[in-house]
Amino acid sequence: MRFALALSALAVTFPAHGADVDFARDVRPIFAKHCVRCHGAKKHEGGLRLDVRRLALVGGDTGPALVPGTAKGELLRRVVSTDDKLKMPPDGDPLTAEQVATLKAWAEQGAKWPDEFAGKEPADDHWAFKPVMRPAVPRGAAHPVDAFVLAILSDKGLKLAPAAERRTLFRRLHLDLTGLPPAPDEVAAFVKDTSASAYEKAVDKLLASPHFGERWGRHWLDLARFAESDGYENDNLRPEAYRYRDWVVRAFNDDVPFDRFTVEQLAGDLLPGATNEQKTATGFHRNTLWNSAASGDKEEFRTYAVKDRVETTGLAWMGLTLGCAKCHSHKYDPVAHREFYRLYAFFNQTDNTEIRLEGKAYIPVLRELKRDTHVHTRGNFLQKGEAVAPGTPVFLPPLKARGASADRLDLARWLVDPAHPLTARVAVNHVWQHLFGEGLVRTPENFGTTGEKPTHPDLLDWLASEFVRLKWSRKALIKFVVMSATYKQSSARTAKLTAADPTNALLGRQNRFRVEAEIVRDLALSTSGLLNPKLGGPSIVPPFPDGLLAQKFTAESLKMPGPEQHRRGIYVHVQRTLQHPTLAVFDAADGNTACAKRDRSTTPLQALTLLNDPVFVECARALGARIAKRGGDTTAARMRYGFEVCLSRAPTARELAILTELVETHEKLGAKPDVVWFGVARTLLNLEEFTTRE
Amino acid sequence: MHPVLEVLQFQSRRAFLSGAVGTAALASLLHADGPKPAAPAAKAKRIVYLFQSGGPSHLDLFDHKPELAKRFAENLPDSVRKGQRLTGMTATQDTFPVAPSKYTFARHGKSGAWVSELMPNVAGVADHLCFVKAMHTEAINHDPAITFCQTGAQLAGRPSFGSWVSYGLGSTNKDLPAFVVLVSQGSGNPTDQPLYDRLWGSGFLPSRFQGVKFRSQGDPVLFLSNPDGVSADDRRKLLDDLAKLNEMRQAATGDPEIGTRTAQYEMAFRMQKSVPELTDLNDEPKSTFKLYGDDAKKPGTFAANCLLARRMIERDVRFVQLYHRGWDQHVNLPKQIEAQCKDTDRASAALVTDLRQRGLLDDTLVVWGGEFGRTVYSQGKLTKDNYGRDHHPRCFTVWLTGGGIKCGASYGETDDYGYNVAKDGVSVHDLNATLLHCLGLDHEKLTYKYQGRHFRLTDVFGSVVKGVLA
């Protein structure tokens, strides 16, 4: 109250009022002295920055700091507040009455802020928005990957770990490239083959395997938020969605270059003389959710789907989180509210349709149509703001449209233009993440200013440029990386390395981590001999526990005959509102939003699943029988066989002793061989090492 | 570095922790299974959320509008409706005839709370409750509205309330999950919207914070029972062997995650004992069933779930989330709501009484409410004895009790039609902020960094409602 009186008194007498306030002379010094220590380049308390014009005008978490032309806004409210929670500055002396009056007059006069003081946008200096250079390869190693990694390691007095044991490396390679474990005789042959080309031959063979596409296609399906139902309340089935999944798997197996892979998925329908195959690829954006229950709000859910297409495109190709810009201009992220809706315009001119293939199948695809786009004020589709045309964010290279107005095909080609600073970096980072468990950028979903910086910026850039030079061939890129000593390192930790680099950011060893949900299933089915390796086609629905299946999707028609039940995890039907529990418990992507990095949790429910889920019990019985039948005549021989099937290695003496004791205990009680070896098989399938890629 | 610290350092790259939350959450990383103190400012240590799915009619239960009797079948004035969005189900109606509640309301207890005859037992404990009469929400369809209540966002993908709380406060029972979910179907509308597992999902929080759904048929927890032919001794031997074998691998690889894995197998083993003990009601005396009613003997009923909730609270489960379906009464509301209240009234009141008698209500929060209210105008044909009501996001009632809540109180008012908030509106974010406050958590500080942004249960909204606090 006292303050308010003082203000009104001053309003009459203070000379600046009525006269023009000069930002540089009158306002900037106040910000500099009292505000930017907490609201500047280093710290942005409350999400507010007062050192950059655009960000100051956007405001902080609690709302706009300024409303030019008025005395409204958080800034003026807070500098006069006496509430401890609100007042600014929070500590020390408040602004003087003159200072407050200056700010008020400045705001009322339109908060004029000359260009020369506009300040540097966070995006201006951000590494990921600068063009990809091809850094010189440091000396010190024959393989460029190793040279870049060693350059940083040796700065810290560290070096690469020794190569993993050949068996370990062979199993790692199988799990990474196909997701299926090697057979014991393949392991033995590899260990025996000491020729220089043995490893490369193994790599080539795995890259040529049709299971490669299943393994790597699944990674892409996470980004594509692939599912086979609508989501929301009704969650109706999408019986033809698997055709897009199969397109992705084929594209990986055929090594479709990433630029073509991109263009066909985003705009296959707009290519001249588009084939059915290219149209099928547009199923990428048919993976949006759809609320068929919302009879009154169809437009609302259509706009949700368009927004999802913008966000998913941003995440999958550019590693950008655009969601915030739906509702407001984000403080840190460079994509402004309006720019979000320029991207939105590309997908707003898109409609869902079907194409008919041989037979009766109707494949969900996209088609182009005309529809005007307006900014949705505060993200609300009912509040139409300014009209916008399709366009891309200003901090990225300009888009060249083929016609008067840009369309999806222009957008797709813009993404894979080698001048685009994000696409190749993001794609290379995804590949690295799947070969090391962590990306070179550990926030694959966020290459923006709030994401983590690359652990090896030069390596990332070199690989990005190499990827383009390799004509966007993913198989070539993967081969290149797995041929490095960095990839082949042991994943064992040493005390010295752990102390120097606890998160292994410097890559002084490989990483050791649990395999993904689908691979947990594949490992159990494969080692037990139950796996049905059939490729592609409609999904399967493994049995659901009693009472779990609800409502519509209990349809008998979904149930698959016997051998089909034992197909790989990628073929398990993805129902958005009811993930299969066996996959869900191991953190499978749920298909609701694009997922660039899965969680890797360890929970008691996983233990219960591996121990008691009928699928895993069935696998243990089959594995036990397999060991008893094929493992030889002695307990030791059988044990060795079981270890080689499950872990690609022989047991140590102590391991052998522990499990031999288990066998003997059971035998003394008169248990039959199938019971005895079921027990051993259960132990093997539940070992931490079994579900771990070392 | 200590292996656990190493894991911690890695995890904290993703988890942004601050203030009091930080300490508790760090503790939960260090001692994933060990007991932890509640946050210092906590009035409540645990919470039971009795979610009434479908949208209970505030007008027939708690929000007494005596003036409406005079306006029977009058069209709802536009000045009241103010262009409110309609669902697809009533958008084509020509008229919006006012449907006064056919049920008698009376004042109850010292506090004089108005409760209808449909809820005689809840009326009996009214002096222990705080009715929040001017709740409002943003969504008009079930799925987005429930998702909004439970995660703070209408679209799927955010962590649920329970997972936020188990992330923020950790577990206090080493043998049971911190966040348990129980679902029941009421006798009202049998075709209510289904409830999906993602409602108790952990979103982008680590998945160990997600809710564990207890089932009423088969194993209470999925895959809890040993397979046929495997005895408890076999299981123990298996776990001992696994522990030894895993330990050897840990020595060879130096990977601390192996220890976590072994610990989780042990937790699973303990759950095989603790969960059946928890769900076995044979040790309950007759008086329990006198209180909750005989329905509590039937697995899967709301009454049985309320009793299980009390048993979980006794065992210090942090967050017990019930969902009871059947409140979506678009047509034939009287028939449906009468049946629905028979399911819920006695057991809801019994739970309050039971917790209070055991001294547990002092530090346990109880919440009763749904995702929205229902319209004052009838959906479909209106007669004196029969009407239906559509979804109504603009106002509805929830009640609260327990640690930190002002008892025998009523907060907020709606207009004479029970259509708009008239005074002291409480948004879903406000309610969630208030509940977190009672649990000792500052809703602005309970954050998690994901995709470059610090997320909260309350998004960027919500204020603690002081008027409902003791």
Shape of chain B: globular
Using the 3D structure, state the CATH architecture of chain B. Answer: 3-Layer(aba) Sandwich
Strand content of chain B: 15-25%
- Poorly predicted tracts of residues of chain A: 1-17
Helix content of chain A: 40-55%
Instruction: Using the coordinates above, name the CATH class of chain B.
Output: Alpha Beta
- Strand residues, percent of chain A: under 5%
Rg estimate of chain A, integer Å: 30 Å
SS class of chain A: mainly alpha
With strands numbered from the N-terminus, the spatial order across the biggest sheet of chain A is 1-2
Helix content of chain B: 25-40%
Number of E-type strands of chain B = 17
Largest sheet geometry of chain A: 2 strands, antiparallel
Amino-to-carboxy terminus distance of chain A: 68 Å
| Annotation field: number of helices of chain B | 13
**If you average the pLDDT of chain B, what whole number results?**
88
State the CATH topology of chain B: Alkaline Phosphatase, subunit A
SSE sequence of chain B, one letter per element: HHEHHEEHEHHEEHHHHEHEEEEEEEEHEE
Overall structural domain count of chain B: 1
Can you lay out the helices and strands and say which pair or pack?
The complex is a heterodimer of chains A (694) and B (470).
Chain A: H1 2-13, H2 23-34, H3 53-58, H4 74-79, H5 97-108, H6 144-155, H7 166-177, H8 184-192, H9 198-208, H10 210-223, H11 242-253, H12 258-267, H13 276-281, H14 298-318, H15 337-348, E1 350-356, E2 362-368, E3 373-376, E4 384-388, H16 408-415, H17 423-436, H18 457-469, H19 474-482, H20 485-488, H21 495-500, E5 513-514, H22 517-527, H23 581-584, H24 604-612, H25 614-630, H26 635-647, H27 653-668, H28 673-686, E6 692-693
Antiparallel strand pairs in A: 1-2, 3-4, 5-6
Chain B: H1 3-14, H2 19-30, E1 46-52, H3 58-61, H4 78-81, E2 105-108, E3 113-116, H5 120-124, E4 130-136, H6 142-151, H7 161-169, E5 179-185, E6 212-214, H8 232-253, H9 257-279, H10 286-292, H11 302-314, E7 319-325, H12 333-357, E8 364-369, E9 373-378, E10 389-392, E11 396-402, E12 409-411, E13 413-414, E14 421-423, E15 426-427, H13 428-438, E16 447-450, E17 453-456
Parallel strand pairs in B: 1-7, 1-8, 4-12, 4-15, 5-6, 5-7
Antiparallel strand pairs in B: 2-3, 4-11, 8-11, 9-10, 13-14, 16-17
Helix pairs in contact in B: 8-9, 11-12
